[in-house]
Amino acid sequence: FASSAQSKKACAALIVLSCSPLVLLAGLRSVEVGTDVVVYLQGMYWKSIDGGLEAVLSGNSEPLFAILVWAATKLTGSLNGVMACVEIAILAPFVLASYRMTPRRMGIAMLLYCLIFFLFGLNCMRQSIAISFMLLASSFLIEKREKPFWALMICAILVHNTAILGIVIWPVLKTAQHHFALREGARSDGLFYVLAIGALLLLTMMICFAPDLIKAVAGWRESFQYQVDQLERGNGIVWKGMLLPVAFSLALLFSWRSGKNRAVIVTCLVLLWIGGFFWQFSSVSNQLYRLGMPFLIFVIPGVLSLLDDCKDRTISFLIGMAIASASSLFGFVFYIANGYAGTIPYHSDIVPLLSF
User: Fold this and answer.
1) Which pLDDT does position 212 carry in this prediction?
2) b vs e for 255-265, b when ≥16 Cβ sit within 10 Å of the residue's Cβ?
3) Could you give the C-alpha distances from 158 to 63, 69, 164, 301, in angstroms and in order?
4) Residue 324 and residue 329: Cα distance in Å, rounded?
5) Which of 23, 69, 248, 322 fits a 20 to 30 Å CA distance from 218?
6) How far is residue 248 CA from its own chain's centroid?
7) Ramachandran region, residue 339 (left: φ > 0; alpha: ψ -120 to 50; beta: rest)
8) Which residues contact 30 (CB under 8 A, 6 or more apart)?
9) Distance (Å, rounded) from C-alpha 10 to C-alpha 223?
10) Of 107, 102, 111, which is closest to residue 135 (Cα–Cα)?
11) Burial 220-230 (b: 16+ CB within 10 A, else e)
12) DSSP-H helix ranges across the chain
């Protein structure tokens, strides 16, 4: 309904209404839902209760997230209130980015968010906020507004330092706009494919040397020592991380038409495959799937842009169903069958009826 609202005020009210159940589920959950609540958030909350902002900033967390927790603690006075505020901080940039890029497809955007990222955000709170900021930053870069892009990317990094990987968005999108944008003089001469293949080969080499890289990162940041302690070599491809790149590639293969969004679509395709390859680090340590998650969010603007360019309603419906099915399978395998992020089963101490 928000997508079809004529008034901006009505649209905003409907979006807030749509996000409310997600904020309530995040705020009413038990501290046992999401392992990072106890590991990070609970300690920061008690520091905010007992001390000032300086005490929270002195911890092992990025400054913007520490400021958010401190402000939310002072505002709400409860850990559940802080968890609700964190969910708002995740949703707000995501909703704004989706509205900026495809305002008439907000329903699909929210559906895919719920299937792919909502449960991830109940655990990896800092990184989820950073991912939303990355998506919002990319919406400005699409419009060739670089100053807001870099400002938002800095904010993302100050929330979670893995967002530094998102800097790759800039060369990928710039190259795609140069070779695929509908403007006079644009070319599609194969250079883009050479760059994409080169990037994938580089990532493959990174995977081969992943243990050494993890140890190097652990020397830079103490919180990564857990990954070093848990190093395990796995065999084969971690196919969970390939579900969305493969689904989007197949949808693009069967429906590709030149259109105004083709540079955005190609960018999202490349970023998805980068995410799929980064996901392979989890064959070394199961916590390292987090490196691939920031890029998997680009399936959302990718499929929305693809639907905007598609004029055939039947094909649009089939694309939407295919991506929704792949996202549902991803959510089931990732969160339910394998129990990643520690968010299933969901439990609420405040409203027991919500527990399942």
Assistant:
1) 60
2) beeebebbbbb
3) 6, 14, 9, 24
4) 9
5) 69
6) 16
7) left
8) 347, 348, 349
9) 44
10) 102
11) eeeebeebeee
12) 8-28, 35-36, 42-50, 53-57, 63-76, 79-101, 106-116, 118-123, 125-142, 146-159, 169-180, 191-208, 210-220, 225-229, 243-255, 262-279, 293-296, 299-309, 313-331
Which DSSP symbol is given to 40?
A: I
CA–CA separation, 113 and 119 (whole Å): 9
Q: Which two tokens stand for residue 209?
A: 């040397």
Q: Residue 256 in 3-state DSSP?
A: coil
Neighbour-count burial for 26-54, b at 16+ CB within 10 Å, e otherwise? bbbbbeebbebbeebbeebbebbeeeebe
pTM over 0.70: yes
Handedness of CA 313, 314, 318, 321 (dihedral sign): positive
Query: pLDDT, tens digit, for every residue of 221-267?
Result: 555 555 455 544 444 456 777 888 888 888 877 776 666 777 888 88
CB contact burial 272-288 (16+ within 10 A = b; e otherwise):
bbbbbbbbbbbbbbebb
Task: Give the tokens for residue 291.
Answer: 């490196």
Using the structure block, give the residue that is written with the tokens 């501290």.
31
In whole angstroms, how far apart are CA 12 and each of 100, 118, 138, 356?
13, 20, 22, 31
User: 10 Å Cβ neighbour count for 349?
Assistant: 14
> Is the bond leading into 63 cis (omega within 30 degrees of zero)?
no
Q: Are 284 and 214 in contact (CB under 8 A)?
A: yes
State the chain's maximal CA–CA distance in angstroms. Answer: 62
All residues at 6 or more sequence positions from 289 whose CB lies less than 8 Å from its CB, including other chains: 238, 240, 241, 279, 281, 282, 340
| Residues counted in the chain | 356
**Cβ contact 122:85 at 8 Å:** no
- List pLDDT tens digits, range 80-122: 999 999 999 999 999 999 998 888 888 899 999 999 999 999 9
Q: Which two tokens stand for residue 18?
A: 């749509």
